[in-house]
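=== RUN LOG ===
request id: a7f3
mode: sequence -> structure
chains: 1
length: 273
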Amino acid sequence: MDMSQNINIYVINLDKRIDRLERLGGQLDDMGLKWQRISAIDATKATPDAFEHATGLAGPLGKMGMGDRACATSHNKAWRAFLESDATFGLFLEDDVYLSSDTPKLLTDDTWIKPGIDVVKLEKYDKGVSKVLLGQGFTLPNGRTLRPMYSRHVGGAAYILSRKAAAAAVQRRNICVPVDHYWFNANVSSMARRFKPHLINPGMATQREFGFNSDMAFIGRSERPKGWRMKWRRAKRGFYEISRLPQQLLAMAFLGARVTPIEWIENFQEKEE
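=== RESULT ===
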């Protein structure tokens, strides 16, 4: 496939997971897309000082475990690589993600990313259908829609950043929530509130539907608090959810935001036809 490509691609991959690199790299190669590998930080081998330039020890959701800190630092490496290029936008992929076959249609031209849009989520997180509060948007060249998010929908396996957003993240040096919450949960992240992420629906990327469970997620599950600490964490999450309710009601009343089903469709145009 011979095509121009206006959005750089960065694949975040652990050195030991050659299998995942071959699978995702093969998919990207088959699509005719150029990409760059970013060597991820291995949480099982890293020491805490490996994370000092990128992450904090704790934040609104509690302590940042080694898995969360390694994941955030790995993404930070990818953002830095992007900023060293001359590209206007970068697509960041974790190695267990599976992409829809119409992905190249969005990467050959970045003019669909309108001024003021700095963060775009391609991923439909987890299995089944999710519901997210989305504002009014517009149709993309591949037939899907791009709409602003007014409620959280986590998952950091596939997203696009502008140079402005990536530079702001690198300069802050204190990621204190998991990286998907950092960009896609305004309840706990000032970065998500500042950059107002947009979401592509139906989703163009997925992890869980195909069983490619994240190594970082596996480590993160083993580090989750237990007992009263877990109850306290859930209570805090509930508080943050409630604190966003006034803004969400305003978005529904004045900006046309609606609770919208989010699903994964491998090729939206083929399904529509």
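=== NOTES ===
The chain is about 35% helix and 20% strand.
The first strand starts at residue 7 and ends at 13.
=== END ===
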